[in-house]
Design brief:
alpha+beta, Thrombin, subunit H, Pdz3 Domain, 2 domains, 6-stranded antiparallel beta sheet, 12 strands
């Protein structure tokens, strides 16, 4: 979440409260001026709770992983593909042997639903996938050749950046 809170250097990690005193999120970063005039970011409270529960339960945080490269559908892409809206996400690549490939998701599919929720942007899809634990089966809907197709995906586990070399990271879509 982007906030307009004036965070000072070292303030990250504290709770972000709403006007009623309820925790809305956890402050994590500031971009810009160090005097508190930059843009601040917070993790939503629901995500913080999920991270906390995973850390207590397993000692690590695991995120779901589809294994796709993607981009938002803009007006130019929508026109080229004959779409009536820019809602959805264009799949630009599918990683070999990934959860997406195993489920039948293909390059040039348009992702429109994930786990029963409409997907309007790449960032929304990334967050939606990350919020689901690996091994979970979810239903997705893609547009392929103008037709809606419902597929079932068993999410993989997002690879750890610590186990990859710089070359691996640069090559992974």
């Amino acid at each position: 979440m982007q906030t307009s809170i004036n965070l000072q250097r070292g303030d990250g990690g504290g709770p972000l409260l709403d006007l009623d005193g309820n925790v809305a999120g956890m402050n994590v970063a500031t971009i810009g001026e160090t005097s508190g005039t930059g843009i601040s970011f917070a993790i939503p409270a629901g995500m913080v709770k999920e991270i906390y529960e995973q850390l207590i339960e397993t000692g690590a945080v695991e995120r779901g992983f589809l294994g796709i490269a993607l981009q938002d559908v803009n007006a130019k892409i929508a026109e080229a593909l004959g779409l009536e809206t820019t809602d959805g996400v264009l799949i630009t690549d599918v990683i070999k042997d990934s959860a997406a490939e195993k489920a039948g998701i293909r390059k040039n599919d348009i992702f429109v639903e994930f786990n029963g929720k409409a997907i309007e942007s790449a960032s929304r899809l990334l967050i939606s996938v990350a919020e689901v634990r690996p091994g979970t089966e979810v239903e997705v809907v893609v547009l392929r050749d103008g037709q809606r197709q419902k597929l079932t995906v068993t999410l993989g586990k997002r690879p750890s950046m610590q186990s990859k070399t710089e070359d691996d990271v640069l090559k992974t879509p």
